[in-house]
Amino acid sequence: MIEELRKLQRDALAAIREARDAADLERIRVRYLGRREGRLSRLLRGLGRLSAQERPAAGAAANRAKQSLGDALKGRLAELAAAEPRREPDLDLTLPPRRKWRGTIHPVSQAVDDIWTIFRGLGFTRARGPEVDTEWYNFVALNTPLDHPAADEQDTLYLAPGLLLRSHTSPVQIRTMEKYPPPIRIIAPGMVYRRDTYDATHTPAFAQIEGLVVDEGVTFVDFKATLAEFARRFWGPGTQVRFRPSFFPFTEPSAEVDVKRVIVREDGTEEETDWIEIMGAGMVDPAVLDNVGYDSERYTGWAFGMGPARVALLRHGVRDLRLFYENDMRFLGQFT
Amino acid sequence: MKVSFRWLRDVAPGIGLTAREAMAQLALRGAPVEEVDDLSEGLRDIVIGQVLEARPHPNADRLTLCRVMGPDGEVPVVCGAPDVRSGAYYPFAPVGAVLPGGFKIGKRKIRGEFSQGMLCSERELELGEDHAGIMPLEGEFDPGAPFAKAAGLDDFRFDVEVTPNRGDLLSHVGIARELHPRGQDGIVLPAFPRTGGNGAGAGAGGHAATAGGAGASFVRGGSEADSAGVRIRIEDPELCPRYLGAVIRGVTVGPSPGWLADRLRAAGARPINNVVDATNYVMLELGQPLHAFDLDRLADRTIVVGRARPGESLVTLDGEARAITPEMLMIRDAREPVAIAGVMGGRDSEVSDATADILLECALFEPKQVRATRRALGMSTDASYRFERGVDPTSMETAVLRAVELILAAAGGSLDGEVIDACPAPWEAPVVALRPSRVKHLLGVEFTPREIIALLAPLGYMVATRGDDSIEFVVPGHRSYDTLREVDLIEEVARTHGYDVFPSTLSPFRPGTVPDDPLFQLEDRLRARLAGDGISEAQTPALGPARHGDVPLLNPMSADESCLRRDRLPGLVTHLERNLSRGVRDVRLFELGTAFAPGGDSVPAESARAAVVLHGRREPMQWGGSDRRFDVYDIARVMELIADEAWPGGTVVPARGGAAGADPGGEDAASTAEASGLAADAFVAGRCFELVNAAGGVVGRGGEIRPAAMDLPPWAGTVVGAEIGLPASPDRKAAVTARELPDQPASQRDVAFLVRGEVAAGEVLRAARAGGGHLLEEAGLFDLYTGDDLPPGTRSVAIRLRFRARGRTLTDKEVDRACRRVLKKVKEATGVEPRS
To answer: Domains (ranges, CATH) in chain B?
Structure first.
C-alpha cells in the first residue's frame, strides 16, 4: 500500500511537472485526486482492507501525499501563470487617447506672465491703474508739458478736454507713489491706447509693462544691472544687453535697451541676432519725484516701459501684430 | 532728420569714420540711424570709360562710333550724342550693367556696327535732367574704375531719429558734433564751390568775394533797426527776441548750380530755385530756418513782427488760405501779414522768377508760440519743427552771413548796406551748477571734477566758476533749451562717458511697500482655470462702435472705434463671428478686460470683466465621442467655474424676468456699476442665467446669445456666452476648514419623479433636499427622461438620495422613513409624485 502510494505520488508529480497549462493540471487533478475516479481516492477506499496496525500509518501517508500533490498543483499553476500571462480581449492601443478641448492663454498674456515671473524673483510686486486718466497723470506729472513736442510723440485718444485714454502705463508710477511711501519696487502691466490705425506693427490698444524702483541709494549701476539680469533670465544667459542714450521726459538719463540674443538652430549651430530694441528706460527724473511729494535729493530711482506684444512677436516669429488681435482659434491654439 | 554722410564729413573734416562706424556711434550717442540709403546703389555697375577714338558711324549721320577703354579693355560703342570727344572720360555702362532705371545693357548691333556698352547722360544715371548730351567728366581717371566714387557721388543718406529734446541735432553741424572727437571744435564750415556757368549765377563770383562772411557788418538795434531802405520792428520781444534781415539786390532767380542741387537731394530735400535752395541749404547745415521775401512785395519795405489783427487772413506758400487768429505771431509788412512767424511764408511775397531784390530773414521765435500756432493751423514745416525744438541763438549771425554768401554765389546780386539786427532781448547763456557728489549719487560711479569737465567741454559747456563740490557751467546755445538743471548735466556726463562703460553689478535691495495687486492674482487664476477648461484666451480692443458703448471718444479714428465698450461680450462675439466666417466651427473664447460706464463726475467708471463665448461641439471629434453641442447648461458651468475664483459662495440661478431691473447687491462699488450693464440685453429671454454673489448681488449674466444680435453664417448653431464682473479688489480666498471623512457606510436610494411641464426640476430637487432632514447627505439629479411611454407633457426626473448618520450605521427602517419624508415634501411643495 505504502509502495503504491509512493509510486502514485511519483507519477503524479512527474505529470504535474510536465503539465503545459491549466487544463493539463485540471486533468491531472481529476486523474489523481478526483473524488470518485481519482487514483488516490481509489487507493484510499482500499484502506479498509488493511489491518488495524497498518491503517493509521497508511492513512497518514495518503494524507501527506494528497497534501503534497495539492501543493504541487498550486505551485505549477502559479508557475504557468507567471510564465504565460492571462489573455484578455485585445485592445488596439494605437487608437488616439480620449481628448478634451485644449484651451490656451493668449501669447501676449504669456509674455506678460513670463516677464512678471522674472521680476517677481527680483523682488517686485504688481500695481494697477485706471485706463482712463487725466492729462495730469498721463503727461504733466510725468514732466511732459503739453506745450512740449514730447507730448506729440504719442498721439492720444481723448474722451473730453483733459481726460484721455492713457497712452502709456507710466501714470501708474505717479498713482503708486502718491499712495505708497518708498521703497517702491513694482511692475505695472496694462492696456494702453494710441491714435494708431491697425498695421503690421501698430494697434490702437496694446499691452505695456511699466517698471518702477525708488529708494535711497538707487543708482544708474543698479538700473543697468537689474535690467541686464532680467534680459539674461528672459532671453538666455548668452544674451548681450546694450544701453543707448535716448529721451523720455520722465527719466534722466534716459536709455533705450537693446538685446542681442544667441539662437541655437536645429542643427546645433549658434547664431547671433541683430540688436533688438526691447524697452525704454532711465533714471526717474527728479521733477517726477517732486510732483508726488518725494524728496528728490534723498530718493532716486529708475523706471522702464516695455511692450509684451513686441516681445511675443519676436519670440514666436510672428510677422504681423494683427494676428494677435484677430483671435483666430487656429492661431491661438498654437500657443499651448 | 535726413543727412548726407559726405556733407557731415565736409563740415567736420576730422571725422575719420566709415558710414557704418558713424551709424554705430550715433546710436550710442542717442541718435540712432533708422534707415540708410546708399546713394550710389543704382550706379554700382557704372564705371569710368575713356573714349580713345570717335569717328562718324559709317551708316548713320547722327551716330558716332567710338572705341572705349573700359573695365574689359577696348570695346566698340555706338553713341547717339553729337559731341563725343576723343580722349575724354565719361560714365560708361559696360555690357551686363544695369542702369538706375533698371535697363540692362546688352551687346547690340546698330546699323551694322557692334556696340558693347553705353556712354551715359545725367538723366540716364538719374543724376539730373540733362539728356541732351553724355556727361563729360573733368580731370584724369582710371578707365574702368567705379564711376560713383570717382565722381564723388558715393554717399549715404542717414535718416537719424532725433528725440524731441535734441533740436540741436536737426542740422548737419549738430550731428557732426556728435561724431567728431573734438565735438564743436571740430566744425569747419567749408567754402562753397565756385559755380560753373549754370546761367543764373553769371558774374556773381566778384560780389561773393566782397560781401561774403567777414566782409559784412551789422547795424544793431533794439526793437527797431533799419538799413538799405528797409525797416524792421519787433512788437513782441518775448515771442521774437531777435530778427536779422539782409537786403540783397539784383539776384537772378533760376535753377541752382549742380553741386547745390545734389547736396539738397543727398539730404532728401527737393531743389526749388537758387534763392530758396540757398536758405534750405543753410537750414540743413546749421539748423537755422531762413526765409527770403521778394522785397518789392513788402509794403513800404517794412517788416513788423507782431500778432495778427482780428479778421486777417493769409494765403501761405502752399496755396492754402489760413485762418489766422490774434494769438498767432505774424511777420507783417506795413499793411498786412506776409508770413506766419516760424511756420511758413505767404504766397504773395514769395520769391519768384521775376524777383530782383530780396529780404533775407533770419529770426529767433519762441518755441511754445510756434508750436501753438502750427498746431492750431494743423500744419508742420521744416521751420516750425526746428523752432519748436529750439534753434541755437548763437549761430544766427553765422547763418545769415552764410546764406548771403551762398545766394550771391548761386543767384548773383549784391548785399545792400549792412545786415539789419533788431534785437530787443539779447540772449544770455544759462549757467547751471553741478555737484560732483550728486553725479556719484545718481550714477553710482565717482567722477572727479577734472573728469567731468573733460567730458562736458567737447559738447561746448564752459566752466564759469568752481567751488567745493560745485562746478558752474555755461551752457552753449545749441543745448540751451534742454540743459537747464543739474540732472541735465549729469545726463550729459553719462552719455559722453558712454552708458556701456558703467558697471552692471546687482546690489541688495529693500522690498517695496506696495502689495501685489489682488486683481492680477485673480486674473492669473481665471486664465489658468479657463484655459484648463478648454477655452482659449482672446484679446480684443476696448474700443467699439457707438452701439456698444456709452463713453464716446472726442477724437476717434473711425466709427467702429468711437466708443469705450460697456461690456466685453459683444467684442468677443465679433471675434466668434470672424472665426465662423473663416470656417472655424468650434470656437471657445474667453477674455479678461475692462468695461466702461459713464461716471458721475465725468470720469468714466471702469470695471474688470470676464467674458466667454462657446459655439460648436462640446468635445473634439473622436472615436467613442459624442457629437453634442454647447448649450446654456455649459455656460452655466463656466459661470460657476468663474464664481469659484471670483465670487466664492456665488450661485448661478435662472435670470429673474426683466434682467435690466436686477438690483445690485453687495457694497462693492464695481458690482453696483456692473449690475445695470452686464450684457443684460444680449441673451434670449428664458435662456439666461445670473451669477449672484454671496451678498445677493447680480454680478454676471450668461446664456444663449440672441441670434439677432449676431452676424452668423446660416450653418451656425447656438452661441452661448457670459459676461461676469470681477471684484475691484478681490479678497484673498479664505482658507477652507477641512471636514473629516465619515466612518460609516451610506445608504442610497434612487427615486424617479413624474414631473409635469410647468413644474421646474430645480424645485423638485430643492424640495427633496429640504425634506431629507439631517440624515440626507446629498441629493443629486442623475437622469432626465422624456418619452412616449410617459403621460403627455411630463418628464421623468430621477434623483439619487444619499443618507448617512454620524457614528452609526443607518437601519433600512430609518432610511425608508427618511425617504418617505422626502416624497412627502416633494408632493407638498410641487404636487409631484414618484413614478410607479
So the answer is: 2-39+156-186 (3.30.56.10), 41-150 (2.40.50.140), 204-422 (3.50.40.10), 431-501 (3.30.56.10), 518-725 (3.30.930.10), 747-834 (3.30.70.380)
